[in-house]
Write a structure and sequence with these properties.
There is one protein chain. Helix 5 (132-151) packs across helix 6 (161-184). The chain starts with 5 loop residues before the first helix and ends with a helix. By secondary structure, it is mainly alpha-helical. The chain is built from six helices and no strands. 78% of the residues lie in helices and 0% in strands.
Length: 185
């Protein structure tokens, strides 16, 4: 796609930000984050208009908020269709669905990778533990770090689990996305 087109840039940026916030809402629900956290409150209020409509038609499956997940996929597809249309490229339904799943998986990994990276940097400056960002990062990273910490002890007071998690997530992301690309070929 022609990235020099300012309209493509604007649409891609706005959709990508909203999609990331919507996916963050889904992930925060899955990890059991504190929804009284001010950042969580922002995420909920910012995404609630679409989620409330979707929940009327798409029921949750057990503890999985399928309405939010379907919204994320739908928004990715809409974004892709708009961008391809503006750029003048053809598209088909199967390719759109596979591309949407690819983007969803990639963005999911990116959210966890960024959360781990930010948490690691913040740990160097000893931030206030009551800070809402720290709390949110704790909830986001705990499901990734907990299993690693069972096998990798702290060495000399240094917790290497974050480094192992970052390397592991980046590796797994590449493997999974390569499988998507192989499917597309």
């Amino acid at each position: 796609m022609n990235q020099d087109n300012p309209l493509i840039f604007l649409i891609d940026t706005l959709f990508s930000i909203y999609i990331a916030i919507m996916l963050l809402r889904f992930i925060l629900q899955q990890v059991g984050a504190d929804f009284y956290n001010p950042i969580s409150q922002f995420v909920v209020k910012f995404t609630q208009p679409l989620v409330s409509v979707a929940r009327r038609f798409i029921p949750s499956i057990k503890k999985i908020d399928t309405a939010t997940l379907v919204l994320v996929l739908t928004l990715i597809i809409i974004k892709t269709v708009i961008l391809l249309s503006i750029a003048g490229y053809p598209f088909n339904g199967v390719q759109l669905l596979v591309q949407a799943l690819y983007d969803l998986v990639s963005l999911s990994f990116d959210i966890f990778i960024v959360a781990l990276f930010v948490q690691a940097i913040l740990s160097w400056v000893s931030p206030d533990p009551r800070n809402p960002i720290n709390s949110l990062l704790y909830y986001l990273t705990l499901p990734v770090l907990r299993p690693i910490r069972k096998y990798i002890p702290t060495v000399g007071g240094i917790d290497l689990s974050t480094l192992v998690a970052l390397i592991g997530l980046m590796f797994i992301k590449r493997v999974v996305l390569q499988l998507f690309l192989a499917f597309l070929a």
